[in-house]
Write a structure and sequence with these properties.
Elements: H1 4-9, H2 11-41, H3 57-60, H4 67-95, H5 100-122, H6 129-152
Helix pairs in contact: 2-4, 2-5, 4-5, 4-6, 5-6
Length: 155
Amino acid sequence: MVDLTQVAENEAFMAFASYATIILSKMMFMSTATAFQRLTKKVFVNPEDCAHFGKGENAKKYLRTDDRVERVRRAHLNDLENIVPFLGIGLLYSLSGPDVSTALLHFRLFVGSRIYHTIAYLTPLPQPNRALAFFVGYGVTFSMAYNLLKNRLYL
């Protein structure tokens, strides 16, 4: 059995923990950004959310969609689709004893690509900016998964 001091001494795991904290903080920021956009634009999807602005027909005018709110929301959903697999595969990868410099490259590329993807989505930058950022992050996660399956897991 591995004790926690061994995990704390694992440089690849500590690097993963650092970059996972950064990317999870970014994802938390996106939920706050979505809420901020909804409040400033007065755009809600649930009747109880707009009760503060009136009742009945007056409140219904706030039940709508807005392009800016939807753009932030879609960027956040894209984070959820990509960061969750990275966290699971990255954790296993970091505990599998990878070369630390290779692990750092994987983690930095993923975090950088996700931050750039968000900038490209929210600005919005023309394609293929967002697509390239997506595929870099996806490729990193796939690379770690491939490395695990090829070198470390018993199938």
